[in-house]
Amino acid sequence: MKTIKMLFLGVLGAFALAGCEEEPSLGTPPTTADAEFTYAPTATNPNVIEFNAKNKDLIAKWDFGNGTTAEGPTVLGTFPLKGTYQVTLTVFNSGGSASTTQTITIAQDDATLLNNPLYTLLTGGSAGKGYKTWVIDSTRDGHMGVGPNPSGAAGDYPEWWAAKKMDKSNTGLYNDQFRFHLKGFGFDQMTKGDVYVNTGQAGNFPGATLNPKTDYTAPFADQMGQTWTLTMGTDTTLTVSGKSFIGYYTGVNTYKVVRMSENELFLRYVDASNSQLAWYIRLVPDTYPVDNGGSNDPTYTLPIDFESVEPKSNTFGGSTVAVVNNPHSGGINTSAKVLETVHGNETWAGFYFDMTNKFDFSSSKTISVKVWAPATGTFRIKLENRDNTTEFVEKDVDVTVANQWVEVSIDFSDAVAGKYGRLVLFPGWSVANAGTFYVDDIKQK
């Protein structure tokens, strides 16, 4: 880690010099009157409340008191469960901020409002036991790592260093559990008495001791009864409350969700002691086999045509998949069965299949897919090393005709043979809620 930190001494020095410049004059800070707001139930659902800031010229940030937040002068707050909530509006300008709080009462539960796909992935959903417990994916390479902040051209992954399996054993990292409840958006951090913390944060943990594997192991009690917040937008972020945190502690408790699926939660977060660093942590459910990337999920070989076999695919980003009767039979595809996928609310939503054998493109150089798209746009195909998901090759192809079966094809002849055993598909790449797509006849040829 010393080498990484030394890379940025010059950058930090520049920041110090910048601090000597003359500070700009600030405007008049907002008043409490500027932070006043009104609210009323929407006509369609009394558990969905519309909030309006009286001063619409200021930056407005809302805390709904139920683990969710929003930003903007007019917003909707969703309250699935009956109860009393303290809603706070904070307004900002160049001179400062001001806040006001009002109490709202929700009379009845509305469980249908909890059916957010990301809530279900994180907590197990309303059909489950009410919570889901996640642990560090300790026996798979790449479960922890570090890269540049902001991310480089390669994207969000630990390009500078990635932990090998069990690399941080006996540090306090691998015995932690993180439980996300659906009811009340509750969060519990269960530590077994100790945690693994960044050297820059050791002073905040009385009794922290230097670990032989670098950084510090510190005594830390369970953090029970906290809350979690998912803020969805261009980047989806996950925040936990109070003193709680997830994984290796770097001084923050807000995490960018790089990937979320039924069996993976991959997070990116900054280093509070060195803003030039971004850390990564991968978690899996506590019921999921932790075996260096292997799983009990079935594997497949190409081609996949959905006729005789309904392969199990893992979704992420809020997408759903189902094998259905072909609703658009004709043209180049008269198959009886196809895969229907409804694009999730994340721009990076999609699904993947694990392969029985790792890809070799020495003779058959391309991956082709038949796709029916509701609009023209980008279709991304990614090859991933399922034993170390920081290793991948991804390429894009344009779908130039909508509402019609077309075949797209990408040349992967430059992909290393025997390395990539996962095929990841992103229909509607870079568009949130891109609509319903149909996919068929996935082939290597």
Brief summary of the model shown:
The protein has 445 residues and is mostly beta strands. The chain contains three helices and 30 strands.
Describe this structure as you would to a colleague.
The protein has 445 residues and is mainly beta. It folds into three domains: 34-109, Immunoglobulin-like, CATH 2.60.40; 117-285, Beta Barrel (Lipocalin), CATH 2.40.128; 314-444, Jelly Rolls (Sandwich). Helix content is 5%, strand content 41%. The chain contains three helices and 30 strands. It has helices at 2-6, 9-18, 117-123, and strands at residues 37-41, 48-53, 59-63, 69-71, 74-78, 83-93, 96-106, 131-136, 144-148, 161-162, 177-181, 186-190, 194-197, 209-210, 216-219, 223-231, 237-240, 254-261, 264-271, 274-285, 314-316, 320-325, 337-342, 350-354, 366-372, 377-384, 392-399, 405-411, 422-426, 436-444. The strands form six sheets. The protein has an eight-stranded antiparallel beta barrel with strand order 8-11-12-16-17-18-19-20. The longest helix has 10 residues, at 9-18. The chain is globular. It starts with a helix and ends with a strand. Residues 1-21 and 291-296 have low confidence and may be disordered.
